[in-house]
Amino acid sequence: MPHAALRTLCGTLRFEPYAEGRSLQALHVGPYSQEGPLLADLHDRLMPDMGLAFNGPHHEIYLSDARRTAPEKLRTILRQPVRAA
Q: What is the C-alpha to C-alpha distance for residues 4 and 6, in angstroms, rounded to an integer?
């Protein structure tokens, strides 16, 4: 990436506090395109079984560098904020 483009990109970044409270999380190993079944299980089975409801959108924490890691070895933490149902 050219330096000018990198400076422009860095100029758009900002840090903000992020307090999500209680969350369920799971580690997904594999391509990003295959995260759906794990999220579906979390949302459709685990949350109801535990008496939990959504408390905001899920988010992902990428533990692997997709540019250097084979898709089948990518590691991603999937986090879903929850509250009592």
A: 5
